[in-house]
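fyi for ur records
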Amino acid sequence: MPPAGRVSRGVADDPLEPARAAIERGEYGRCLRLLEPIVAAHGVTVPLGGRARMLMATALIGQGESEHAASCVRGLKACADPDLRRQARDLSLILEAPSLQRPENWSLTLPQIGAVESLQQRVVSLDQARPGRARPEAPPPPPVGPTRAPLGFAIVVAAVLLLLTGLLGGCLRVETDLSLPAPGRLELSQSLTSVSGSWMPWQRQFASTLADDADLSRFKLSLDPDQGRLSLSSGVVSPAEAAALLKRLALDAGELTGQALPAPQLSLQERNWLLGVRQQIGFELDLRQLQPLPGLSFKVRLSSMGVGAVRTAQPLAVEPRPKGLSWPLQLGAMNRLELRSWRWSRLGLGSLLIVLLLGLSLLLQRLRRQAGFGWPELPSP
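which gave:
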C-alpha cells in the first residue's frame, strides 16, 4: 500500500479527479463546471483535453442532452490517443443510432384510475339489475337482548354532580342591609351566611382578610361559626363612607377568589325643604361576569321604606317585607335600583309647631280684646 502522502500527491496531479468524483455522485452540473476551464485550456489533440471532453460527454448524457453529447464526441476524432478515438467512435454510434418505432402490442397501457368503474359499483349495479333476487336476512340479535341505556347509573352520577356543585360551587347567601337613620346618614351591614349552617373555608379566609385590612378596622366584624354567619356593620356613616366600604368589600372578595368583582355604586341625593328632606337613593351592581351558581344568592334589604318609594328595579322586582323592602339581585345581569322618599324633619316640624302655637296665642288675645276684656291685668290689692 503506497504512503498517504504519495496518494494525495497523485490525486492532486490529476486535474480530472474532481470531475470523475462528481460523475460518480451524480453531480453532472458540477462536473461540467469543473471541466469547462480544462476544455478551454487544452485542445482536443492533447490527451488531457481528450479525456476531459469524454467526461463532459458522459455528464451531458447523464443530463439527457444527447445531441450536445454527440457533437462533443464527434470532435474527439482528431484526438491523438487511439483508445480515446475508439471509445469516441463507439459512443458516437450509440448516440447517433436512429430510434425504432415499437408496435403497440409490445407495451401495456394502463387506463386512468378515475375512469375505471370500481368493483363495489359493479356489485351494486348487479344487485339493482336483479330485483327479484332475495337478499339475505339480517342476523338475529344477540341472546342478551338489545343494549339499554344505564338509566340508574346516569341518575346516580347526576345526583353526585349536583351534590358536589351545591357543596363547592355556591351555598352562600350575601345579604346587604341598608337603612337611613337620619338625613345625610346611612347605616350599612353586610352578612355572608352559609346555607348549610356550617362554617365554610372561604368564609374563614374572608374573615381573616377583613380582620387584617387596616381600612376596615373601625367597622364592627361579627363572626358566628356555629351558624355559618359572617357580618360586617358600618354603624351610622356618611354616604361616601358607605360607598367606600362596599367597594373595599368587593375588592377583598375579588382578591380572595381570584376574580375581579365590580364595585357596587351607591349614591344618595337629598334636598332640604325645612319641613322635610326629599331623598333619592341609587344602587347599581354589575354581575354580568358572574354566572348563576346553585345556592349562591345576593339580596339587598332596605329598612323603613315602602313599595311606593321604588322608581326603578331591574331586572328583578322589589319584594315587600314587614319592616321594609327586599330586592334580590340576579347573577349574570346588570342590577339597578332607584328609590325616592320623603323624610320629615323633626327640627322643621318643631319649628312649625312653635309658629302655629304662637299664632294661635296671638289670635286668642285678639279675640279677647274684641270681647271687651282688654289686656290681662294683675289683680288689685
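The radius of gyration is 54 Å. thats all i got for now
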